Structures are given as structure tokens and as C-alpha cells.
Amino acid sequence: MTNLAKKRVVVTGLGSITPIGNTLEEYWQGLLAGANGIGPITHFDASKHACRFAGEVKGFDPTQFLDRKEAKRMDRFSQFGVVASQQAIADAQFVINDLSADQIGVLIGTGIGGIKVLEDQEEIYLTKGPSRCSPFMIPMMIANMAAGLTAINLGAKGPNSCTVTACAAGANAVGDAFRLVQGGYAKAMICGGTEAAVTHISVAGFASARALSFRNDDPLHACRPFDKDRDGFVMGEGAGILLLEELDHALARGAKIYAEMVGYGMTCDAYHMTLPVPGGQGATRAIELALQDAGLSPEQVSYINAHGTSTPANDVTETNAIKKAIGSHAYNLVVSSTKSMTGHLLGGSGGIEAVATVMAIANDQVPPTINLENPDAECDLDYVPHVSRALPVEVALSNSFGFGGHNVTLAFKKYR
Predict the structure, then answer these.
(1) What one-character-per-residue DSSP string does 17-85 give?
(2) Could you say which residues of the chain have pLDDT below 70?
(3) Which letter, b or e, does each residue of 105-115 get, where b requires 16 or more Cβ atoms within 10 Å of its Cβ?
(4) What pLDDT is recorded for position 5?
(5) What is the spatial distance between Cα 374 and Cα 239, in angstroms, rounded to a whole number?
(6) Burial of 36 (C-beta count, 10 Å sphere; 0-12/13-18/19+)
(7) Which three-class secondary structure state does DSSP give residue 203?
(8) Sign of the dihedral defined by the CA atoms of residues 55, 50, 206, 71, in that order
(9) Which of 167, 191, 223, 379 is catalytic?
(10) What is the rounded CA–CA span in Å between residue 74 and residue 71?
(11) CA-to-CA distance for 49 and 45, rounded, in angstroms?
(12) DSSP E strands: which ranges in 213-296?
């Protein structure tokens, strides 16, 4: 670290592009209302697919926010990331200029990156030959480009990186950005996750792995975390971005503060490519490490935004991890899975779920878990079924877990 004392880090801006709303206010109000963003796939002809529904972003026109030529040279995942970052900067009333640019960084994670561009260019290659492939194919496809293009668009010249840890990528990006501000390496970091992988190859691949729900006759009720009738996750797309800022810097400019970020836990199961380790020891340690990092006791936690994928393996494993890490207090706090409304944004999920967690603290309201009609006997916590709940939220955690055994927990609390 550049200074002996750790800097305090606060959240001063939020941005979101999601299946239930393309602004922060639309997203938050949608969560509180139990809005459902899942429906039949429209991005491609899914008639031959085993899974034919997803959580798609609706009505997103990148040319409303980006130069037309600039937008055309971005994959959809980069468009989401850049626009959500613009929103977060505007929300924070944050100015990046020649004097501050070197101290403002970007860290945006993604699980898959520009797969739509790759699919489209493969088709061109097969039908028209290699000479017809776009010179922009590689820069549009590579996973770091959301972070790179965001920096270019906003003029942020500080630390810049990209996490690619599957479904933990967005949360890792927020956690790593937290460390950079905390350590004095940046005054502020634009961070989160983005994904646009509702494409024919991605859907086919996840379906072949038996990871998706196949409830094609009832997509609105397909994503049902912690329900005994769950049969897999539902793919989603979008981006969630936070502006993390050094407290003194935020106070000096009179910024509004949503919450303080106080902890980051990261572990690996080192067990299996796709399955969590039975018993959830890796997830348990991530939660424990985040609390330890924050200097918090388990009894101080009010709310946990769960990874809550609606898969048979995750929901029981995560429930067990929460109970092991939190102890008997697990039955006093509340847990919810906002994926029940948005679907699973893969690398983008940690971003939009961190946004939801921060908003829960700022507003003392907890989003619900919708579609929880027949609770699994092994999932026996308070998952805020169906209807959002007003309650004091002093400390909140956000869990994200990814293929490869990645486990991340982020800890936030009310700014005092």
C-alpha cells in the first residue's frame, strides 16, 4: 500500500442496464415491485433450442449515449458497460478532467466477453472467406474491452483492468477496485460487471451442460431460487457499475454517499469445474473473510444478496455456507436472490447485485425473491418471498460464485 493507513471507501455513483430497467431508478423500482424480466428469446431464433427464454435487456439503443460509429465498433457487452459507467459518473456528479484523470481507474469484469461478435464473424468466415472478417473483430471480442472503452469514453487514465472469473467476475472487479482505492492507488474507481451472452452458442452450451431451466411452457416462473421445484438458472444480460471513491475525496466535493464498502472475501473451492464443493466450505470462507476484512461480527449483518441461481446445487450449498459463516444469526437476518427477477447475468451479475445491495442499505428496503412457492426443506432461511420488505439495513453482503470454484463476498454498511 502507498500509505500505512487504509483509506475509507464509499459508493457515490451507481449505474445499471438490466432486464427490468435501463436506469438505476427503473432497476431499483423494478426490484421492489417484484418485476419479472424473463421471457422468450428475441435476439435469435431459439426454436430448435432446449431452452428458449432468457432475461433480455429491452429497448436499449446505444446510439442514444454513444456516437453511432463508436457504438458500431463495440460488442453489446461493451456498450452495456460503457453506458452504465456513464450513468454512474452522472449519478455521482463526478467530473474527470486533466487534473484528476490519472487518479481515476476502471475495473469491469465479464465472464464471456464479445461472443456475439465471434459468432457473427465465424459465419462470415464460413460463407464469405477469411478476407471478409472485420478488422474490428478482435478488439470488439476481447474481454478487457469494456474496461478499455469505458476509460477512453470517460477519460479515466488511472488503473485499468478486467476480471474474468466466470459468474464471480463482476464481484471480483468491485472487490479489486476497493483494494486499489483503499490502498491509495486511485482516488476513485469505476467498477462492476457486464455481459451480453444471450446468443445461440452460449445458450446451447449451457443447455448441454444441463445448467439451464427448461421450463419453456412457463418462463415467468422458471427462475425460482430456493424453491424445491427449481431446475436450473435462466440466462440474463446487462451491466451494473459502481463508483467507489476515497472518503476524503468524496467529502471534499460534497458528494452524496450511498454506503461505505468495508470488506472483500475471495476464495477458491479447488474442487470441480462447475460444481460447488459439497458443504460449501469455499463460500463459507469467503463470507468469513469479508466480515473479518470489514471488522464486523456475523451478528451485525442485516441482509445478504445471495448468488441464488435457482440451480439444485447452488441454493442448498449457499444456504449451508451462510449458516456456517453466520451461525445462529442466519435465522435473524434476511436473504434474497434478485436473479429471480433478472435472470443470471453471468459476469454481470456481481455488478447489478452489488448495486442492489447498496440500494438496500441506502433505502432500508430489501428486494424479494419471487417465484418462491414451494420452499426446499434444506433452504430454511428467510428469503423475503414474493414481496419486498422495509427494514433497517445496517450491514449487507453480496455473494457471487463462479465456474472454476471462484467465491466472492462483498461487504457494505451504512456510512456514519
Answers:
(1) EBTTBSSHHHHHHHHHHT----EE--SS--TTSS--EEB---S--GGGTS-HHHHHTS-HHHHHHHHHH
(2) 1-4
(3) bbbbbbbbbbb
(4) 86
(5) 31
(6) buried
(7) helix
(8) negative
(9) 167
(10) 5
(11) 9
(12) 238-246, 259-268
Helix (H, G, I), strand (E, B) or coil at 238: strand
Q: Could you give the CA distance from residue 401 to residue 296 in angstroms, rounded to a whole number? A: 22
Catalytic residue among 162, 307, 379, 406: 307
Q: Give the 3-state secondary structure of 156-200.
A: CCCCEECCCCHHHHHHHHHHHHHHHHHCCCCCEEEEEEEECCCCH
Total count of residues recorded for the chain: 416
Determine how many CB atoms are found less than 10 A away from the CB of residue 120. 18
Cell output for 240: 451494473
Amino acid 3: pLDDT: 46
Q: Where are the beta strands (DSSP E) in 337-391?
A: 365-366, 389-390
- Active-site hit among 249, 344, 379, 406: 344
* SS3 state of residue 294: helix
379 catalytic, yes or no? Answer: no
Annotation says 167 is catalytic? yes
At 180, phi and psi to the nearest 5? -65, -40
Exposed, middle or buried by CB within 10 Å (0-12, 13-18, 19+), for 49?
A: middle
Q: Which domains does the chain have, with CATH numbers?
A: 8-404 (3.40.47.10)
The string of pLDDT tens digits covering residues 5-50 is 899 999 999 999 999 999 999 999 999 999 999 999 999 999 999 9
